[in-house]
């Protein structure tokens, strides 16, 4: 979906396909008909944006096969789908039974991370519609804090590779709890020397909330550092207002699961590296908890739990409520649908849920004065 900001900026809204399991081209193509087109039809829009996740094997295959790229472009076009952003954070294996810390590997010390990201940027330049001003690729915040050994010049190689493309594509580092870049303050400090024409920040509203960051202050910090918000990931975290309450702890237990890491904070970082560790005494429980568990945007979890949707709403207001749009790519990224305690029972349930999240975001944007572009 597309929206026009009052300053004339064309704002693209998409949903991220890392919610779907596919690590070969046939799987990616199948998900366009299985999920992408039905979501578009449910929303009643002529064109729907996808934030494609192309695992390393898919990206490598497409990078060396122009015919396969054309096949993907045709499939997108016939189903009324467009791509202006890619999610390059997970490298591969994002739907393995256990992912946890593997999602941060390889990190930005490894040349293979650079090669993968540049392959994505080149592919995106070919996939973008002709009228797209630029593309974006989101990526991990350098690496997991205990494994990081420095980028060894990889960010400079990345920026030079992006500068050499025919169509502009920017790469966005996504602050996340527990990582080298955990907060916007760390982003401002650790990305101070990068080439800011090509490299910036992906602001994930769930991560922002788990860090107990104020959206206005966070955006001001990034702007003062000269770092663009290349992309917003519209997401909400799980919140427990009273984690000492037995019923609240029982409800939180239902969100403990083996696949993804669910970093948890009480008030501010540092916190516990996973929800089970927080429940086992890793956090004192004297103040509200926020948990890195992406929950649906349009509906709170069952009481006594809630979500950080107000932080997302405030972030959208800061980005789009003024006279100038402060980003042009918005990606709904609830990749956790299948591991929710009340996970959708079938494809139809997942389609309905994704469409409801996009509709919630659409209504928020239009309430802020953006005009939906339907042509």
UniProtKB/TrEMBL annotation:
<feature type="domain" description="Xylose isomerase-like TIM barrel">
    <location>
        <begin position="65"/>
        <end position="224"/>
    </location>
</feature>
<dbReference type="Pfam" id="PF01261">
    <property type="entry name" value="AP_endonuc_2"/>
</dbReference>
<protein>
    <submittedName>
        <fullName>Xylose isomerase-like TIM barrel</fullName>
    </submittedName>
</protein>
<dbReference type="InterPro" id="IPR013022">
    <property type="entry name" value="Xyl_isomerase-like_TIM-brl"/>
</dbReference>
<keyword id="KW-0413">Isomerase</keyword>
<dbReference type="InterPro" id="IPR036237">
    <property type="entry name" value="Xyl_isomerase-like_sf"/>
</dbReference>
<dbReference type="GO" id="GO:0016853">
    <property type="term" value="F:isomerase activity"/>
</dbReference>
């Amino acid at each position: 979906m597309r929206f026009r900001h009052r300053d004339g900026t064309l704002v693209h809204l998409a949903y991220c396909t890392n919610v779907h399991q596919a690590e070969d081209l046939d799987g990616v193509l199948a998900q366009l008909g299985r999920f992408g087109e039905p979501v578009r039809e449910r929303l009643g829009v002529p064109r729907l944006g996808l934030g494609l996740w192309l695992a390393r094997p898919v990206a490598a295959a497409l990078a060396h096969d122009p015919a396969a790229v054309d096949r993907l472009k045709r499939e997108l076009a016939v189903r009324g789908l467009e791509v202006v952003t890619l999610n390059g954070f997970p490298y591969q294996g994002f739907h393995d039974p256990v992912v946890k810390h593997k999602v941060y590997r390889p990190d930005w010390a490894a040349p293979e991370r650079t090669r993968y990201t540049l392959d994505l940027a080149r592919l995106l330049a070919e996939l973008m519609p002709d009228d797209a001003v630029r593309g974006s690729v989101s990526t991990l915040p350098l690496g997991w804090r205990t494994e990081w050994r420095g980028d060894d010049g990889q960010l400079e190689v990345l920026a030079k590779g992006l500068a050499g493309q025919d169509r502009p594509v920017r790469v966005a580092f996504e602050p996340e709890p527990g990582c080298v870049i955990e907060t916007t303050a760390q982003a401002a400090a650790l990305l101070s020397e990068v080439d800011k024409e090509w490299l910036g920040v992906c602001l994930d509203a769930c991560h922002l909330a788990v860090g107990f960051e104020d959206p206005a202050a966070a955006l001001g910090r990034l702007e003062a550092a000269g770092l663009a918000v290349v992309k917003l990931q519209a997401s909400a975290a799980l919140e427990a207002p009273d984690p000492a309450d037995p019923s609240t702890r029982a409800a939180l237990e239902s969100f403990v699961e083996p696949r993804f890491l669910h970093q948890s904070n009480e008030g501010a970082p540092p916190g516990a590296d996973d929800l089970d560790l927080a429940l086992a005494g890793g956090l004192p429980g004297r103040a509200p908890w926020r948990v890195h568990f992406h929950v649906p945007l349009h509906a709170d979890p069952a009481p006594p739990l809630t979500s950080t949707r107000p932080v997302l709403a405030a972030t959208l207001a800061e980005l789009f409520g003024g006279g100038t749009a402060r980003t042009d790519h918005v990606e709904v990224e609830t990749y956790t649908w299948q591991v929710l305690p009340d996970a959708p029972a079938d494809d139809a349930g997942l389609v309905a849920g994704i469409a409801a999240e996009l509709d919630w975001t659409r209504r928020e944007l239009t309430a802020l004065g953006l005009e939906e572009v339907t042509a």
